[in-house]
Amino acid sequence: MGRRGFLALAGLFALSALVALSFHLATAPTILRLAVGPIGSEDVRMAAAFVQSLNREKSSVRLKLVLTESLSDSAAALDKGRAELAIIRPDIAMPAKGETVLITRRFFPFIVTAKATNIERIADLRGRKIGVVNNPAGNVDLLKTILNYYEVPHNEVDIIGLSATEISAAVQSGQIDALFAVGALTARTLSQGVNLIRQAWGNDATFIAIREADALASRNRAIEPGEIVRGAFGGDPPRPADPLPTISVTHRLVSDATVADTAISELTRMILTQRATLAVEVPAMQGIEAPNTAKDSALPVHNGASAYLDGNERTFFDRYGDWFYLGVMAFSLLGSGVAAMLSQASSVRRHNAMEGLTRIVAMITEARDATALSTLLDLETEADEILAQTLENMAQQHIDVSGLSAYRLAMDQLSRAIIERRRFLNDMPEAVHEG
Q1: For the segment 244-265, what is each residue's pLDDT rounded down to a tens digit?
Q2: Smallest Cα–Cα separation from 175: which of 192, 187, 196, 158?
Q3: Range name among 162-176, 285-299, 337-351 with the lowest pLDDT average
Q4: In sequence order, which residues have a C-beta less than 8 Å from that of residue 377 and are 6 or more positions away?
Q5: Where do the CATH 3.40.190.10 domains begin and end in the chain?
Q6: Residue 114, C-beta contacts closer than 8 angstroms, at least 6 positions apart
Q7: Of 156, 413, 421, 433, which sits 20 to 30 A from 220 (CA to CA)?
Q8: For residue 255, what are the β-bridge partners?
Q9: CB 376, CB 370: distance < 8 Å
Q10: Superfamily of domain 85-314
Q11: Rounded distance, CA 230 to CA 265, Å?
Q12: pLDDT-derived band of residue 137, with 50, 70 and 90 as boundaries?
């Protein structure tokens, strides 16, 4: 194999390596970092379930958890580039670069008190002590937003932060007159809420409606109208006794807007299709829902999630069809150009390799006209050199079968001419025997 053959083989190996690398990069899973916290929260349990599910299903998108101390820290992690995804609560902190992928849980704030307090509407909270389940801490700010709307000054109420275990004692001791809580209407949280309400108020619980939810939502894009259905907290008579108008806030899986649409579409698909299976292990998964994909929705939705939810996902050929056809055309033109260059180079090499044939033909004439034996010896020496060069050209495939046949015929003629002329010169009485 000649030098050009080795170069061609090396080029083939390089092209194969490039194709293999391209295939690996195209099929390797996309790794996205998901900021979530605090540790031990329901959000972290859900995120861990996402990770396990995507790994188990060998999805083209995989997640790596970035644990944070709060929902605010998770939002900051996305904005600062430490994560591509985050689970956040928009009314507490919404990343500037964040776009919604899915709503992971929906929470319904409510105010509950005892009948004896005579608190029938939010304006009646003036001068009262309001307990707030302050996990997360943003619940206090949400209460203040509601009080501001109803023009209840903060200095006219006493807001007391409580943990879930402190509620019953705070109610029975008179430490609080009403409780503001933010709960998700799922099986687990409902059972907890029912127990807390029963322990604190028994059958005497009264729920205060937030009737102007639409107006509140129009002022704050992180708030939506909501309703707690009759009997959501159980009991007989049911608690609440009638559907309770209120607001709702959401925990959301959000993505950096720059993440590829294909990756977010696949992530959205995998979570929604695995939702029922994962809910067996993490009941909160039942609360996962699709966001509003309307163009004028209060919180923007990532194009990848919107494409999947609206059935507008682009196929492989939709995304890369134009490039595919352009690539085929470019490859065809390149191939034609390379073929022409190779053909030209091959023609030049064959022409150079056949130059010896022209010389042999001339040598036949010189042999027949030779007047000295030394001339014939010189012709034989030159013929040997041409033969050696011809054999090298043949090894490098610069001469084809027809060219080799022409050389063989010419060499035979030259050999015959030299033999005949030598015999003639030897038979001459005065032959010249130089050299």
Answers
A1: 999 999 999 999 999 999 999 9
A2: 158
A3: 337-351
A4: 435
A5: 85-314
A6: 171, 201, 204, 205, 206
A7: 156
A8: 85, 99
A9: yes
A10: Periplasmic binding protein-like II (3.40.190.10)
A11: 37
A12: confident
